[in-house]
Design goal:
244 residues; alpha+beta; Aminopeptidase; eight-stranded mixed sheet; four-stranded antiparallel sheet; 5 helices; 14 strands; globular
């Protein structure tokens, strides 16, 4: 891999906890291979396009990197209900795609979040989508979900030799009753296990952030202990119960 830029942000409003500031460390890198993504994920990094980031807030450690142990994972009763009500969903896995259908769905989803959660407006254009969600990368995967031919959800992920990392998901608000976010995670878990992967990385679970609470319901899982620096080895702690 080739490092192009290393930066640390100034404190900014936290995207997860309204009463706190957040500081992020970012690496802009190219020529990163899937095996190298494995090492970065294990150390708490996430990827969007050519950028790899992690929170390094000096006075807060609420962000827990979380990964599901796929060999032992079995859907809970509520998760099985999600699977049952989505048996009519067609799932395709391939390289990320940029087109008007996806841009329209993303904008519909984001506008709903702006109205319901107070998010800042984001009129994603094709160039921005290509950079953040469809950047050419050997690990990049797209899970697309359709009902009667209609695109209702898109999951963007990285596949490495031992894991899949669910990076981003957006969906049609008109199909909110389907719990497509959970269905996306369950679909990726089954797909990755069938391919012999050990982990499903779910990004950060943040204590006190209701919208991320669902991640704790995928058990057993492990959480990364502390912030990994220098040549330190990452330490992960297993939990067999919902962390809420």
């Amino acid at each position: 891999m080739r490092l192009l830029e290393h930066s640390v942000s100034t404190p900014q409003p936290c995207p997860y906890l309204a009463d706190r500031d957040a500081t992020f460390e970012t690496l802009v890198m190219v020529e990163v291979q899937p095996a190298e993504v494995t090492q970065l994920l294990a150390r708490g990094w996430r990827r969007f396009g050519p950028s790899y980031f992690r929170p390094i807030c000096p006075r807060c450690d609420a962000c827990d990197s979380l990964r599901v142990l796929l060999d032992d994972f079995r859907p809970s009763t509520s998760q099985r209900r999600v699977l049952k009500k989505n048996t009519d969903v067609e799932v395709r896995v391939g390289d990320p795609v940029v087109d008007e259908e996806r841009l329209t769905l993303y904008r519909e989803w984001h506008e709903n979040r702006e109205a319901s959660r107070g998010w800042s407006p984001d009129q994603m254009d094709a160039e921005g989508y290509a950079l953040h969600f469809a950047f050419a990368h050997p690990a990049a995967r797209e899970f697309s979900f359709r009902v009667d031919g209609e695109l209702v959800g898109v999951g963007l992920s990285d596949e490495t030799p031992d894991a899949i990392s669910a990076a981003y998901f957006y969906f049609s608000p008109r199909h909110a009753a389907r719990s497509l976010g959970s269905f996306n995670v369950l679909t990726q878990a089954a797909w990755a296990r069938a391919r012999g992967r050990r982990y499903l990385y779910l990004g950060y679970r943040v204590e006190g952030c209701p919208s991320l609470r669902y991640k704790g319901g995928f058990v057993p899982h492990e959480r990364l202990l502390g912030r990994v620096t220098g040549g330190d080895l990452p330490r992960w702690e297993r939990s067999n119960a919902d962390s809420e």
